[in-house]
Design brief:
Helices cover 35% and strands 24% of the residues. The chain is α+β, with helices and mostly antiparallel strands.
């Protein structure tokens, strides 16, 4: 494959087109009508289970859950379903002044303060309207594969509501910090709107309508490539919605609202940009003990026994973190509670098994795990079909092992921003669940109309 060593800066210089990033007139809750902002916000729909959905319903009659994930009813039909009810709620809230459109085109500075690994962080970015473009034809790059089901679900919601209800999460290179400096200057000492969510994450929002400040920020952002961190399904749904509206004759020109999508833009150099690991709980294979695991992996990995139980898992994870590379995985054999580290030393095997991928892709620990270990070694030796459940915290791994909810637990080092940049910038998709950007972006802070500018 060509251009394997292109950096984000080089991509910025190579592309003639510029990302079209705009201020916009967001729809927002009138807090004088709904009360505290914390009562009407919600995490993205795809991390909400039934219990949290009910808690959000109970929190406020105006909580955004009624828009992004309306409840299903046994009596649902083509004319009365979760999508039509969401659209009905939105129409009612607009007509009653619960949700109103800002009078001035603005950018919306968005900070999230949170705790990870025992440390406090602040992730800083800006919400804007970004022109949609097909992947590979401009300055916007995906890094994950998408699935048809979630896109079909979101497309129904796009059509029903005519609104972006949740932002896509985009990243841009800014080693000098020029964009963030301009954003910091634009908010000065202004007091933000503030809300704390169910995980304790504090979100702060500053609308910026001063046109000189807006021009300064969008001018700095325009030449930069944008890498989608989260929200690939929503972005691709936006492209499909645009096609549908064009076919219906509703996109009059390049300025029509469906040409754009709501996006949160964060610098790749932001100190608060945290990528958490995504560990695997493997089932669907016969039980395997420590001795058998070492025998199966030994010809391609340097395998060492670390310890037993929860302490063994903790020690294995500390070794992986200290190693700081993509070469080491941690394996816990549930049948005997033993934990191991395994350093991969057979790159030629990956070159054969994943010849159509770049060296950067093949070097990822998650690629080695899925292509080589779960895709070849274990099923060939043990039979069965490995299936994964994904968790992010070490405690979730040790709890699952203690309850014997899987046959094998695997600790996986997270991909870095450099991996995202190199692989996505090469128009290549990373393996599923390679990255987990924490925390998720809230829904309910701002909405972007797909009907009016």
């Amino acid at each position: 494959m060509e251009g394997l060593d292109r950096s984000a800066t080089q991509l910025s210089m190579e592309a003639d087109a510029m990302a079209d990033i705009r201020a916009f007139r967001a729809y927002r809750y009138d807090l004088g009508r709904v009360g505290a902002l914390r009562d009407v916000i919600a995490p993205p729909y795809d991390v909400i289970d039934a219990d949290l959905q009910q808690r959000l319903y109970d929190q406020s009659p105006y909580n955004v859950i009624r828009l992004i994930l309306n409840k299903e009813n046994a009596s649902d039909s083509e004319t009365d379903n979760r999508y039509t009810r969401a659209a009905g709620c939105l129409r009612d809230w607009q007509s009653e002044g619960i949700v109103v459109q800002d009078s001035a085109r603005s950018l919306y500075v968005y900070h999230q303060e949170f705790e990870a690994e025992g440390q406090r962080h602040v992730r800083r970015g800006v919400l804007a309207r970004v022109r949609l473009e097909p992947f590979g034809q401009g300055k916007i790059y995906p890094h994950e594969e998408t699935m048809a089901g979630p896109k079909a679900d979101r497309l129904k919601l796009f059509h029903a509501t005519g609104m972006n209800l949740s932002p896509v999460f985009g990243l841009y290179p800014d080693e000098t910090g020029s964009v963030q400096s301009a954003l910091d200057t634009s908010i000065g000492r202004a007091l933000p709107l503030e809300a704390t969510d169910h995980l304790g994450v504090v979100s702060r929002l500053w609308p910026i309508s001063d046109q000189q400040a807006v021009s300064a920020v969008t001018g700095l952002l325009g030449p930069k490539p944008v890498f989608i961190a989260d929200g690939h399904h929503r972005y691709e749904t936006g492209l499909r919605y645009l096609e549908d509206r064009r076919a219906a004759g509703e996109v009059r020109d390049a300025e029509s609202a469906p040409n754009f999508i709501l996006m949160m833009l964060v610098s790749m150099s932001d100190p608060g940009l945290i990528i958490l690991p995504t560990h695997r709980l493997v089932s669907g294979i016969p039980a395997i003990d420590s001795q058998r695991l070492r025998m199966l992996l030994g010809s391609h990995f340097d395998v060492e026994v670390v310890g037993q139980g929860e302490q063994g898992a903790r020690d294995a994870w500390e070794l992986i973190q200290a190693d700081g590379t993509q070469e080491m995985l941690g394996f816990g054999t549930v049948s005997d509670g033993t934990w191991h580290t395994a350093r991969f030393r057979a790159g030629d095997a990956m070159q054969t098994l994943a010849a159509d991928h770049s060296p950067a892709w093949r070097s990822l620990a998650v690629s080695v795990l899925h292509v080589f270990v779960l895709g070849r070694v274990l099923p060939e030796a043990l039979g069965g079909q490995p299936q994964c459940r994904y968790v992010h915290l070490l405690g979730e791994v040790t709890d699952a092992v203690h309850r014997k909810e899987c046959q094998l637990a695997v600790l996986v080092p997270p991909a870095t921003m450099k991996h995202v940049e190199d692989i996505a910038g090469n128009l290549e998709k990373m393996p599923p669940k390679s990255t987990y950007f924490y925390p998720k972006l809230l829904s309910g802070l701002v909405f972007n109309s797909l009907k009016v500018n």
